[in-house]
Automatic annotation (TrEMBL):
This is Aminoacetone oxidase family FAD-binding enzyme. Residues 188-332 form the RsdA/BaiN/AoA(So)-like insert domain. It comes from Sphingomonas adhaesiva. Coiled coil: none annotated. Its cofactor is FAD. Keywords: FAD, Flavoprotein. Residues 5-385 form the RsdA/BaiN/AoA(So)-like Rossmann fold-like domain.
Length: 387
């Protein structure tokens, strides 16, 4: 039996950050993972350039049953702190849009940086073996990893959520949490494309067409691009609203978010021979599909009332998704280990000393755009202060 001060389960962003910081605070830490390499989701993130944080990361850009839970960790380890770390490692970066920060080079640099930090903390990393029995008795956690048994007074659950199983993602965090008396908020795929039913199939013919929109689900609204796919809808605006969408609900899309009220009647006065499709100033295939559904050809032939109705429909076009593309395609998971059982300051389980949960495993899910990694770093850092 090998003994440590802390065992971290999961060599993703949260686990590596937590282990590195705790190691540098003098703790003897081991990180265990079944994947053959660390940080696989970091490697594929941001199109290979890793959108590693967002300048605007704050709790109001995260979904959680407790919207206040993320405040403490995000406030104590900020996007600026992570940028400072990236710069200390000489990694060049740039802001793409909407506060999203990416490596100029490769996501590999972020993994290498985390491994360097872990090495500086003397962290042991063991990969490529399945996790076996996890036990707890007399204040000591024991974990089987391959042929070894490891023991420590602290256990950090950092095994993420079940999105993208082909990368090694599993729901083990939830099994462990339940086993140790923590509740789990029902996990759902999030930041995921939505599928459309047969009656909305007309739009599938538009596969590949993208346009800037405002997409809405419930009270959430996002001004970004939407993309039609052969199964339904995708693109950043749709991925964002997918985290808020519930089965049975419609989503609304404003296809002309920048148009002034009354723009279609004004267009008729200015150019009565123009067609609705022509007046829409959208990609041609999309404009034609929308105009056909609305049933207006030449603007001059339509009444002002019909054009006002068309304008209202275009500002809140209703789609009725019949599902999502599921965990296979979801960037993250909404839901997870219930925050009610955890300290927002240290991520420690309230009723079981020594148990911690961090990162995507916890019921805290960020918007698209670097928010989820910032939560991984911040929650990992917070737990490391208490280890
Ligand atoms: P993460 O999933 O990274 O790590 C968990 C670790 O636990 C993995 O190494 C896994 O192998 C291990 N594990 C799981 N089950 C196990 C088991 N049963 N036994 C042993 N080990 C086990 N976010 C962002 O902010 N910016 C971005 O650019 C992107 N881009 C992006 C692209 C794609 C395609 C995806 C799928 C996701 C993103 N994300 C993102 C989201 C981001 O990747 C995610 O939120 C973080 O990786 C979560 O970090 P964690 O460390 O919590 O889990």
């Amino acid at each position: 039996m090998e003994t440590f001060d802390a065992i971290v389960l999961g060599a993703g962003g949260a686990g590596l950050m937590c282990a590195a910081v705790a190691g540098q605070r003098g703790r003897r830490v081991v990180v265990l993972d079944h994947a053959p390499e660390p940080g696989r989701k970091i490697l594929i993130s941001g199109g290979g350039r890793c959108n590693f944080t967002n300048r605007d990361a704050a709790a109001d850009r995260y979904l959680s049953a407790n919207p206040h839970f993320a405040k403490s960790a995000l406030g104590r380890y900020t996007a600026a702190d992570f940028v400072a770390l990236v710069e200390r490692h000489g990694i060049a970066w740039h802001e793409k849009t909407l506060g999203q920060l990416f490596c100029d080079g490769s996501a590999r640099q972020i993994v290498a940086m985390l491994l360097d930090e872990a090495a500086a903390g003397g962290v042991t990393i063991r990969l490529g073996e399945p996790l076996g029995e996890v036990g707890h008795a007399d204040g000591v956690f024991t974990v089987r990893h391959g042929a070894r048994t490891l023991a420590a007074p602290a256990l950090v659950i950092a095994t993420g959520g079940p999105s993208i199983p082909k990368l090694g993602a599993t729901g083990i965090a939830y099994d462990l949490a339940r086993r140790f008396g923590l509740k789990v908020v029902e996990p759902r795929p999030a930041l995921v494309p939505l599928t459309l039913p047969g009656e909305e199939a007309l739009f599938r013919a538009l596969s590949g067409v993208a346009t800037p929109v405002v997409a809405r689900a419930g009270k959430a609204a996002f001004a970004e691009a939407a993309l039609f796919t052969h199964r339904g809808l995708s693109g950043p605006a749709i991925l964002q609203v997918s985290s808020y969408w519930r089965h049975g609900e419609a989503i609304g899309i404003d296809f002309r978010p920048d148009a002034a009220p009354g723009w279609l009647v004004a267009a008729k006065r200015a150019r009565p021979r123009a067609t609705l499709a022509g007046a829409l100033a959208l990609p041609a295939r999309l404009a034609e599909a929308l105009a056909e559904r609305i049933g207006v050809g030449e603007l001059g032939a339509a009444s002002d009332r019909a054009l006002a109705a068309a304008e209202a429909r275009l500002a809140d076009w209703r789609f009725h998704p019949d599902g999502t593309e599921g965990f296979a395609k979801a960037e993250v998971t909404v839901g997870g280990i219930a925050t009610g059982g955890l300290s927002s300051k240290t991520m420690a389980a309230r009723h079981l000393p020594g148990l911690y949960a961090i990162g995507e495993a916890v019921d805290v899910t960020g918007w698209l755009g670097g928010y989820n990694f910032q939560w991984a770093w911040a929650s990992g850092w917070a737990a490391a202060q208490a280890l």
